[in-house]
């Protein structure tokens, strides 16, 4: 199966199915991490045809998505003296593709990169759309660039080695898109256990993202819906120093927080909230969470990239639609979040 | 006088003349350096209307155009919690605008910036065209982004405090454009002492760059002519750790090297070479230089961003035209450069 994603400057293919041969006429720098490489690097290299292939390994984990990690990738690129005709290739989860995307965006003012995502989260979400970046002490993805890949190769076979916890976490991004953009997809997810419909489930999720991103590449309107749950998630991840929750887990908790706020504002009915919660529960994403310090949590919400006036909350409006609200006062928010305080 | 520069995404004004009021509806972070700020920051602030104004100072000089400098700017931006609607404003020479441009390109995946250039070099060249970046141990501007400013405000009055050496260095970029793109402008420069025709001289130079950049924003063809002298200049600057030569001085030497190569290849007549040399001499840019270590110099040339196969040399083809050549062997180059060995 194949989708084509239209960006402002070019379109790129997202191929879903058995990994096919990847050919490049000049140098390729393959970047992977310490967990994925031992499992899948050889498979990838057996499919890669290029005159010169270099590899660079980064430490696994969101806590390594830092400038130091980018410097390491750039160092390997300069050592290999990659030119603007050469290619970086990311093999791994969202951390790897976000970092390789950012490194390739700023190396010699931008070279091409491609992605072979190996986690469910990266396959259904992170690998498509051109957002790249790193974290810093102020929060998540606060430094980065819009730099779309030139191709994404999604092979569900890579998921066979994915820890169950990570697989479930990836599911959160699928639910996210169903709730904000596509009621039919939500119903489909309710009635089709993902493990048995993996390729089609991924395809449908990528298709929604492709359509959204094509309409709003730079997140000025529609694309903001993809941030449902994320304003909260970023604060949750930061509070845990990017190591206690997987990104998808934080998004799942964040969606429930957004739902609580939407319920309070009359945007969401309780029955719908419960359906979303039930679907998350099916994948073990009905997770407990406690906001240790509301003031600090609130401060982190204020750092979100989407904010221009107040904190920008993406709230579901029933199933298949959303609103962006920047007019929330602190006390309303605190009341809505009482279950987590 | 005003020129409008068309980029792929938007157009921006370059205003040449007395600095007019700059108005922004939200926060502005003004970035300047330790030499320019004491001279001109108050003038700028008196012309700037915005609800919240922050300032950040960087160390003056090309040797500070590093990631550490970018981190400092980003830190001030996060402290001020700039949103995507806010603005960075560069007041200074090319180092300041390159750094503010890059910082604004990657802050929250990109916010707007404007430039008030205070050196001749920045006014006629660096401030227009959208190239931003920093140096690293591998060379000059090797990390960066294409990120055009939203406006450039050129006031020749700022040049009254510019050291003579820097003024002359800026002239090199004007000669560069005349040689590669515009024979009439070359003749005009020969017959019009710049000090007495400053505003018009700047205007003509910016107009050439505007036209070139509009035709080839990402440097895939025509824009490469703007790199005349620069392949050599980057190696010269690196050899001097970015502190012995001003950028324009290195470019002037680099143009003479390119001319020697062009002469050897029959692209340039000796009489034309001498005219270019004479014009440079008028501005004290007929500078001596010695290549201390040819092997290391050659290695630095190989790191140039424009290279895809061999080293890419931009060579004048008479006056008003150029060719890009990647087929030069090492011995031909060494022979052409004998005067500097």
TrEMBL record, chains A, B:
<dbReference type="InterPro" id="IPR030963">
    <property type="entry name" value="DHQ_synth_fam"/>
</dbReference>
<feature type="domain" description="3-dehydroquinate synthase C-terminal">
    <location>
        <begin position="170"/>
        <end position="307"/>
    </location>
</feature>
<feature type="binding site">
    <location>
        <position position="140"/>
    </location>
    <ligand>
        <name>NAD(+)</name>
    </ligand>
</feature>
<feature type="binding site">
    <location>
        <position position="173"/>
    </location>
    <ligand>
        <name>Zn(2+)</name>
    </ligand>
</feature>
<feature type="binding site">
    <location>
        <begin position="94"/>
        <end position="98"/>
    </location>
    <ligand>
        <name>NAD(+)</name>
    </ligand>
</feature>
<feature type="binding site">
    <location>
        <begin position="60"/>
        <end position="65"/>
    </location>
    <ligand>
        <name>NAD(+)</name>
    </ligand>
</feature>
<keyword id="KW-0963">Cytoplasm</keyword>
<comment type="function">
    <text>Catalyzes the conversion of 3-deoxy-D-arabino-heptulosonate 7-phosphate (DAHP) to dehydroquinate (DHQ).</text>
</comment>
<feature type="binding site">
    <location>
        <position position="131"/>
    </location>
    <ligand>
        <name>NAD(+)</name>
    </ligand>
</feature>
<dbReference type="InterPro" id="IPR050071">
    <property type="entry name" value="Dehydroquinate_synthase"/>
</dbReference>
<comment type="pathway">
    <text>Metabolic intermediate biosynthesis; chorismate biosynthesis; chorismate from D-erythrose 4-phosphate and phosphoenolpyruvate: step 2/7.</text>
</comment>
<keyword id="KW-0479">Metal-binding</keyword>
<feature type="binding site">
    <location>
        <position position="247"/>
    </location>
    <ligand>
        <name>Zn(2+)</name>
    </ligand>
</feature>
<protein>
    <recommendedName>
        <fullName>3-dehydroquinate synthase</fullName>
        <ecNumber>4.2.3.4</ecNumber>
    </recommendedName>
</protein>
<keyword id="KW-0547">Nucleotide-binding</keyword>
<keyword id="KW-0862">Zinc</keyword>
<dbReference type="InterPro" id="IPR056179">
    <property type="entry name" value="DHQS_C"/>
</dbReference>
<comment type="similarity">
    <text>Belongs to the sugar phosphate cyclases superfamily. Dehydroquinate synthase family.</text>
</comment>
<keyword id="KW-0057">Aromatic amino acid biosynthesis</keyword>
<dbReference type="Pfam" id="PF24621">
    <property type="entry name" value="DHQS_C"/>
</dbReference>
<feature type="binding site">
    <location>
        <begin position="118"/>
        <end position="119"/>
    </location>
    <ligand>
        <name>NAD(+)</name>
    </ligand>
</feature>
<feature type="binding site">
    <location>
        <begin position="158"/>
        <end position="161"/>
    </location>
    <ligand>
        <name>NAD(+)</name>
    </ligand>
</feature>
<dbReference type="Pfam" id="PF01761">
    <property type="entry name" value="DHQ_synthase"/>
</dbReference>
<feature type="domain" description="3-dehydroquinate synthase N-terminal">
    <location>
        <begin position="57"/>
        <end position="168"/>
    </location>
</feature>
<keyword id="KW-0028">Amino-acid biosynthesis</keyword>
<feature type="binding site">
    <location>
        <position position="230"/>
    </location>
    <ligand>
        <name>Zn(2+)</name>
    </ligand>
</feature>
<dbReference type="InterPro" id="IPR030960">
    <property type="entry name" value="DHQS/DOIS_N"/>
</dbReference>
<keyword id="KW-0520">NAD</keyword>
<keyword id="KW-0170">Cobalt</keyword>
<keyword id="KW-0456">Lyase</keyword>
<dbReference type="InterPro" id="IPR016037">
    <property type="entry name" value="DHQ_synth_AroB"/>
</dbReference>
